[in-house]
Write a structure and sequence with these properties.
heterodimer; A: alpha+beta; D-Maltodextrin-Binding Protein, domain 2; 2 domains; seven-stranded mixed sheet; 18 helices; 18 strands; globular; B: mainly alpha; MetI-like fold
Chain lengths: ~425, ~300
């Protein structure tokens, strides 16, 4: 009798313990260290936990340089994060390494993703499954120095809207010394910065081509459009002489130093440029072509659920991922980090669009393309080298373009193996 | 404890004094040996093993035989990088030794502010390579911010592209690297010069031998151990050059067009930018073989003495 009571008591105790364990799920979230991103995520986690008392989220961060290595090692070993942040360009590697799982369709219906997010979210789709969702996205825009515009007799409130006006503004604002050396650029040339994206996703398309076909697995810029785009770019230094590759070492330094009238850069540069004291600067959309056609390059970090998560942890992860990709989270992210909301409704508000800084970036998102890099650093290098062969070795444009296409195709093919 | 009272059957007491010494020596050596085995030798063996796989962080490694090595031989970048690495070596080593010897030779004779001048030469050696590379990068810029080009245009000469040139970039990177290592080499040379007994010089001078002959017949031969040490030391340094190159051309490391990329940087980029670990391991094995060969050849030269 006594024994039976004891057993009953024990069973009850175990049951209570189990119930408690079930209602107190801890999931782990990983991202790389970037002060404002960490701050924003801490705030989001706080709000999420307040709304979901049974779930706690452990926030772990690593330096960017070792981030991928750590994620791969931890997940393969069956440890590490439940929800993980990854660059959109890593998704193939993460899927191949079985590090992440497809987003469950009950919590993340595809039609809703397609309808509510910007089209660039497509880059997270493989074989009919979405593998992650972004909180925020980045796009490019043309930054211009209002002081230099004014000094050159241009209206500082009317930045160039198409390539023709862009060239004219660059030619007016460039300054040279008596020997013809540039002492202040009209436009910064920096292929290692964002110019390779501009060339690839914008200039080539504006010349009637496409940079890649077959889901970015076939290089297609070894074409007339690619040639014209390359010519346009290198002419800026060789013919119009409005900029010099390597001037003040890099584009952002030249612009920040007030020695460049225009530069192309992304939302992520807003923080660095906000400290500029010497002059006022403005932002406008990337120049359109003669027919008014515009393009842009967008990129983002997405959040995904790792492959071994299941049961109640999966349920908690689903809730957390839903929350950090909600309009509310995106609003907070924009305020704290300065990155653009990934949902159309959260991004394209009257307030955001009329913001003189965010507005042009947001408009760019609507027509932006996202290159499906297999190895961004290596593919960027092929573009840098292509321009260098023309500028430093006087290689024929066509030959340099063909060489770049061949080298990049080899990188893509190797990754597909 | 006193050995006399200990049990005669103890293993330790059965050892002779010289054996005991050996045991003690090995006991103390065991710590660094263990440390080196775990930290150095084991990873080295692992890297060699890795070089026969296609591991890329994301997928489990699978054996691919010599594929990485055949790929390396067929990779034009590898041969370019190979050439660059040896350019750093064969330009860097003789020039740095020549300059540092000349400085040491004459500095040795200077009494006025000797210590101060020597400290000035040594100063760059104390500076972080990365910081130095960033400063030199700005020296090499075009006008209006580059000091060297500023001087050239002031003198009415055309600007030089320096780091933005496929021919000038490598020497331009080498210059601060040589300058940075100079102080160390000067100190070693002075120590070597001081170690030569003055009686040889006195005897030579009494016999009326010319200064040049003294240098050729006495100073240089007696300096050979110092010279060999510095040659080995600086050769390895130039074969492993990385931070200077990486930092001076931060946005296109090893550029332009790979004309300044050393082997170490190719390994770094293959491993930690492209995550192609197997291929990077194969490159590391090749670098290891090169360093081993160069060191063995130089040790051989030392033995001939």
């Amino acid at each position: 009798m006594r024994l039976r009571k004891m057993l009953a008591g024990l069973a009850f105790g175990v049951g209570v313990l189990a119930a408690n364990a079930a209602s107190a799920v801890e999931i782990e979230y990983w991202q790389y260290v970037f002060e404002t991103r960490v701050k924003a995520m801490d705030q989001l986690i706080q709000k999420f936990q307040a709304a979901n008392p049974g779930i706690t989220v452990k926030h772990t961060t690593f330096p960017y340089a070792e981030y991928q290595t750590k994620v791969a090692a931890a997940v393969t070993a069956g440890q590490g994060p439940d929800v993980v942040q990854l660059f959109y360009g890593w998704v193939d590697g993460f899927i191949a390494g079985k590090l992440i799982q497809p987003l469950p369709k009950d919590a993340f219906p595809h039609d809703k993703i397609q309808a509510e997010f910007f089209p660039i979210v497509k880059a997270m789709e493989r074989g009919g499954e979405y593998y992650g969702l972004p909180t925020a996205v980045r796009s490019l825009a043309l930054f211009y120095n209002k002081k230099l515009f004014q000094a050159a007799g241009l209206d500082p409130n009317k930045p160039p809207q198409n390539l023709q006006e862009f060239l004219a503004a660059a030619e007016k604002t460039v300054k040279r010394d008596s020997a013809g050396n540039i002492i202040s650029e009209g436009f910064t040339l920096d292929m290692a910065g964002q110019d390779h994206q501009w060339w690839r996703e914008v200039l080539i398309r504006q010349n009637g081509g496409v940079p890649y076909t077959d889901n970015d697995r076939k290089v297609a810029y070894d074409s007339d459009a690619g040639l014209k785009a390359l010519q346009f770019y290198t002419d800026l230094q060789t013919k119009q002489k409005v900029g010099l590759m390597g001037f003040m070492d890099e584009a952002q330094a030249a612009f920040k130093g007030g020695l460049a009238a225009m530069t192309i850069d992304g939302t992520f540069r807003l923080g660095a440029f906000s400290s500029i004291k010497g002059f006022e600067w403005g932002v406008t959309e990337l120049p359109a072509d003669a027919n008014g056609m515009r393009s842009n390059y967008a990129s983002y970090f997405a959040n995904a659920i790792t492959s071994r998560v299941q049961g109640e942890k999966l349920e908690a992860s689903k809730k957390f991922l839903t929350y950090i990709s909600s309009p509310e989270a995106m609003e907070l992210w924009l305020q704290v980090v300065g990155e653009l909301p990934a949902r159309r409704s959260a991004a394209m508000t009257e307030k955001n669009l009329s913001n003189p800084i965010y507005g042009p970036f947001l408009k760019g998102l609507d027509y932006a393309h996202t290159t499906m890099f297999v190895d961004e650093a290596a593919q960027r290098q092929t573009a840098i080298d292509m321009v260098n062969r023309v500028l430093l070795q006087n290689q024929d444009l066509k030959a340099s373009l063909a060489e770049a296409a061949k080298a990049e195709q080899a990188i893509i093919d190797r990754a597909a193996k | 404890m006193s050995t006399a009272r200990a049990k005669p059957g103890g293993l330790w007491n059965g050892l002779s004094l010289s054996h005991k010494r050996v045991v003690w020596a090995w006991t103390f050596l065991a710590v660094p040996i263990l440390f080196y085995s775990v930290i150095r030798f084991w990873p080295t063996l692992q890297a060699i093993g890795l070089s026969f796989t296609n591991w890329n962080l994301m997928r489990p490694a699978s054996f691919v035989g010599l594929e990485n090595y055949t790929r390396l031989v067929q990779d034009p970048l590898f041969w370019q990088v190979f050439r660059n690495t040896f350019l750093y070596l064969i330009i860097g080593t003789p020039i740095s030794l020549l300059i540092s010897f000349a400085i040491a030779y004459y500095l040795d004779r200077v009494r006025f502010m000797h210590g101060f001048i020597r400290a000035l030469y040594f100063l760059p050696f104390l500076t972080t390579a990365a910081a130095m590379a960033w400063v030199w990068r700005w020296f090499y810029q075009p006008v209006p911010i580059g000091v060297i080009n500023g001087f050239l245009t002031w003198a009415g000469l055309p600007q030089q592209p320096f780091l933005r040139s496929t021919t000038q970039a490598l020497p331009a990177i080498l210059a601060p690297a040589i300058w940075a290592g100079l102080g160390f080499q000067v100190i070693i040379f002075i120590a070597g010069l001081r170690a030569i007994p003055t009686s040889y010089y006195e005897a030579a001078r009494i016999d009326g031998v010319s200064e040049f002959a003294i240098l050729r017949r006495i100073t240089l031969p007696l300096l050979k151990p110092t010279l060999v040490f510095l040659i080995v030391f600086s050769s390895i340094g130039f074969l492993r050059i990385f931070d200077q190159v990486y930092n001076i051309n931060f946005n296109d490391p090893g550029g332009p067009l790979n004309t300044t990329k050393p082997l170490v940087m190719m390994i770094y980029q293959t491993a930690f930018k492209s995550f192609d670990m197997g291929y990077a391991a194969a490159q590391t094995v090749v670098l290891f073989a090169i360093l081993l060969a160069v060191s063995l050849i130089q040790l051989r030269v030392l033995k001939d003495r």
